[in-house]
Write a structure and sequence with these properties.
The protein is built from 14 helices and twelve strands. It is α+β, with helices and mostly antiparallel strands. The strands form four sheets. It has a four-stranded antiparallel beta sheet. About 45% of the residues are buried. Bound molecules: protoporphyrin IX containing FE. The site of protoporphyrin IX containing FE has 27 residues, from strand 7, helix 12, strand 9 and helix 13.
């Protein structure tokens, strides 16, 4: 049953199916605590029985999406597998072949599509990222460093007892109390509201998105059931994830702004135009002239906006990172792009030390974000946004322009800022973000994890 294009199953009687929150990993749907410290671990399974034993031991640590947050808990844990990982666990071949083709290929094989070239190309990735050795991805997060250390110590002991599974990569990460990441901008604000998830929407102007866009087994925005891996117990309530370690050239970004601006105020404005939000998180769409830190900090207001009243981008340029990544209603009048088919749940986290405020020279430290995508469609969500909206400008009528923050710029790119009487054009955009590596993963539901742990052959 191998096919490159999984067929879309027509929707049946499950239109109003309720989300089985008790079977979905909490980390898939719920925002992370803020602030937090965390650790990503990658494991290699050398012995399938050991891999299954590890899953059994992990299961009690993984919360479901309907469990209330437990302040007494040491840390919250999420788990996902690469295609090679499912293979190493001994998942039958007809089941393996039923997964999305991009997932089966893996992120490194998609490098040309994703624009991971030159410094960002897989041959320069941090090992073992992008190699067939990566099988299991674990994320452990806690609001408290001591509790995280205790959880990791338990994990280390459990893992030592299970010979045949090796920890091959570790990345510590954190979210600052301000929510700001290395370029200085507050992140993780814009998230889709997921129908039936019980998580309150942050943008009252948008209809919640169908759960099937994010969780397998439910109707999506096209009123179809997205292709789901077989058997049903493995696919249902699972989802795809893409994680990428992205190095950020913070000093280069600051130097660029300094060179283009006549004052500190203008530097802040150019940075906001590039991102689509001020550093505080306040959106240009709501406060185009100057930052409003109270608005940026207010979760009831900082995502409550659309773009239709700003079609020419005088407030927020169409090419700004956040507007490219989610143009909201900007295309509603044209009807040509259905933005709702290209949404994603995002989990971004910082790694490495922050470059102190005001420093313009690179200190050589490795810093950036570990970006994580969650959604039912790797191709039409993550890959589409990365390739059509961040790495290209056709959709906004500027074919030669890429995302000024996270696009595949090479020093020759431009970024247009609409303003009166004449637009401003920033030139010679260098790459501010370098891919250090990443993987496509599948995060199974809890019943599926048990099924994987109980595999026998
Ligand atoms: C190092 C690389 C990146 C940095 C520093 C970065 C930073 C940001 C910031 C500061 C925001 C605004 C805050 C917010 O709305 O949550 C944002 C929004 C967003 N970014 Fe990124 N980003 C990066 C890469 C990416 C990539 C690779 C993608 C997708 C392929 C992406 C997708 C999004 C989306 C979907 C939004 C939300 C837009 C909205 O709903 O308004 N970002 N990002």
């Amino acid at each position: 049953m191998s096919s490159d294009q999984p067929t879309v199953t027509p929707m049946t009687a499950t239109t109003n199916a309720r989300l089985e929150l008790h079977d979905i990993q909490r980390g898939v749907l719920h925002p992370r605590p803020s602030p937090y410290v965390g650790t990503y671990l990658l494991l290699r399974i050398d012995d399938r029985r050991a891999g299954r034993e590890l899953i059994k031991r992990l299961l009690p640590a993984i919360d479901s999406a309907d469990s209330p947050p437990d302040p007494a808990k040491q840390a919250s844990v999420s788990v996902a597998f690469t295609y090679q990982g499912l293979k190493a666990l001994g998942v039958p071949s007809d089941s393996l072949e039923s997964f999305a083709p991009e997932f089966r290929q893996g992120m490194a094989a998609r490098a040309a599509v994703l624009g991971d070239r030159a410094e960002s190309s897989p041959e320069n990735w941090e090992k073992p990222l992008g190699t067939p050795e990566v099988h299991v991805a674990l994320a452990a997060l806690s609001s408290d460093a001591e509790r995280l250390a205790t959880t990791l110590e338990h994990a280390r002991k459990a893992h030592e007892e299970v010979a045949g599974v090796e920890a091959i990569w570790r990345q510590d990460c954190y979210q600052l109390p301000s929510g700001r990441t290395s370029f200085g901008f507050k992140d993780a604000i814009g998230q889709p509201a997921v129908e039936s998830s019980g998580i309150p929407p942050s943008n009252p102007h948008e209809q919640p998105i169908k759960a099937g866009e994010f969780i397998l087994g439910y109707p999506d925005e096209t009123s179809s059931l997205p292709p789901m891996p077989i058997p049903e117990i493995l696919g249902r309530n699972g989802t795809y994830m893409a994680f990428r370690k992205l190095h950020t050239r913070v000093a280069a970004f600051r130097q660029y702004l300094r060179a283009k601006a006549a004052s500190r105020e203008e530097e802040a404005l150019l940075g906001a135009k590039i991102v689509g939000r001020w550093q505080s998180g306040a959106p240009l769409a709501l406060c185009p002239q100057r930052d409003d830190p109270d608005l940026g900090a207010d979760p009831d207001r900082n995502n409550a906006f659309l773009y239709l009243d700003d079609p020419r981008g005088f407030k927020c340029p169409a090419g700004a990172h956040a507007r490219r990544a989610n143009p909201r209603d900007a295309f509603d009048h044209e009807g040509s792009v259905d933005v709702r088919l290209h949404r994603m749940i995002r989990r971004g986290t910082s790694y490495g030390p922050m470059l102190p405020d005001g420093v313009l020279e690179d200190d050589g430290a490795d810093r950036g974000i570990v970006f994580a995508f969650v959604g039912a469609h790797l191709r039409r969500q993550f890959e589409f946004v990365k390739t059509q909206w961040l790495n290209d400008g056709i959709f906004i009528g500027a074919p030669s322009e890429k995302d000024p923050l996270a696009g595949t710029n090479d020093g020759s790119g431009t970024f247009t800022i609409p303003q009166r009487p004449i637009r401003r054009r920033l030139r010679d955009l260098p790459p501010f973000v370098i891919t250090r590596g990443g993987e496509y993963c599948f995060a199974p539901g809890l019943r599926a994890l048990k099924w994987l742990g109980d595999l026998e052959t």
